[in-house]
Each structure stands twice: as structure tokens, then as C-alpha cells.
Amino acid sequence: MRIWLGALALLASTAQAQTTPQEAAPPRILVAGDSTVQTYDVVHYPQAGWGQFLACGMKPGAVVLNRAIGGRSTKSFIAEGRWDRLMAEIKPGDTVLIQFGHNDATKAKPERFADPAMFRDNLLRMIWQSRGAGANPVLVTPVARRNFDEAGKSKADFADYSAVMRELAASTNTPLIDLEGASRNMIDRMGPEGARKFYMNLAVGAYPAFPQGQHDDTHFNELGARAMANLVAEQLAGLSVPAASLVMAQRPDLERKAALGTYACH
């Protein structure tokens, strides 16, 4: 592991030395993640991921490239070549947001499952390669499910994986967005019933894409995805990465009290 960390530091310093402010492209945001993050086609409305709305909290001209896809873990995202394709898109100065954990924890699906040790190795690879390309990796702890204990407090369903991210953030000096903590705090304030409006709990016949209705406390609807994107943007603004300058101080499109009925920002 010392070899990995030494290589990480060397690549980071090399990339910094080779990239001058005059050469650097305007900062962009690339996103790697799972179904809670991905961008959905209109035929799937109201299901949405927070990466779908992140640009709605950014200044005009900001570029967000959301490469998150449902059902993927760090293991399958790498195995399918998705990480390599994201790497091929990276430009020096970009910020790479990385949220996994939900599917890494799925023991019943071996193509996805990565225990915390493998999860750590996979994330370390993502950090190392992002920095080697002159980009700025940011770890994002897995967003909360609507899962409450008997006392009415939300549960940390992926605590072991969030712990790995927090440890890696400290040991590799990688910025961290604690979306797990922020989203749990938010839905704790709302309570189990209040938080229902953010998730895919749909009445029969309410939406063409889900004629039989839906009971899903993992995935977000439009309103919930906007709210989660706002939590990401809020923490991103406080990090020492180029993309922090892209975040708008006021984000009305992410702070809506009612759904717009569209994936648009306005």
C-alpha cells in the first residue's frame, strides 16, 4: 500500500508541474456512480438521480458530465470499462465526483459485490488515476435510503463503505463530500413520513412509466434528486477544488418545495 500512496503522490506532483494556469482547460465536473446518481431519460419520469440536477446549481456555462449508471459498483464500473472511458474524457483541472457503495454491498450479485477491502482498492485506483491525469477526485459517501429505526432515526445502511471513504479521504488527502451524513440529517428532520416525498413511492396510475405504482425507498423522484444535488453542491462549494468556484450561492432550482414535472432546471 505504501507503493500505491507513493505513486499517488508522485503522479499528483508531476501533473501539477506539467499543467500551468495558461494551459488548464476551464474546470468541468465528471460524475461516477450508481442509480441514485445517474441521469434518466424522460420516459422514466419521475425517477431521477442527483447527478442529473447538479448542473442546476452551477453557474452558467458550467459543464457536468454524468457517467453514473444504475446497478454498478466500483467493481462492475471498472470491469465494464466505464471507468476507463471516463478517464479518456478527463482534462487537467477537472473535478471527478465518485459515489459508490450501494451496489458494492450486494453480496447476492457477485458481479457487483466488493467487500470493504476491495472497495478501498478500487477507490484508491480511481483516486490515483484521476490525479495522474491532472484531475481532482472527490469521494462522495453513499446517499441515504429512507430506512428508519424504531426510534425514528435514519439508518446508515452502508456504514462500512462510508467508513472506507472517510479513511481514504484522510490518508490520501482527498476531498470528501459526506452525502450520507448530510442526507441522513435532512431526512431525520423530516421524519419517516415527511421523507417519503423524496423517494419513488408512487400511487397506482400516477405516472405513465409506473402504471402499477411503486414502493421504493432507495431511488429518488425529481424532488428528492434535486434536494440531494443541493446537498452535494453545498459541500462542493467549500472544497479546495476548481469546481468549487462553479457553485451558485443561491440554488433555487435545487431548493424547490414542489416538483416541476420535468427534469429541466427552470
Which H/E pattern describes the elements?
HEEHEHHEHEHEHEEH
What's the total helix number? Answer: 8
Q: Helical residue percent?
A: 25-40%
Number of strands: 8
- How far do the termini sit from each other? 47 Å
Give the radius of gyration.
18 Å
Mean pLDDT: 93
Oligomeric state of shown chains: single chain
Task: Provide a descriptive summary of the structure in words.
This protein is an alpha/beta fold. The chain has a single domain, classed as 3-Layer(aba) Sandwich (Rossmann fold). It is built from 8 helices and 8 strands. The strands form 2 sheets. A 5-stranded parallel sheet has the order 3-1-4-5-6. Helix 1 packs parallel to helix 5 (116-132).
Keywords:
266 residues; Rossmann fold; globular; disordered N terminus; 5-stranded parallel β-sheet; 8 helices; alpha/beta; 3-stranded antiparallel β-sheet; 37% helix
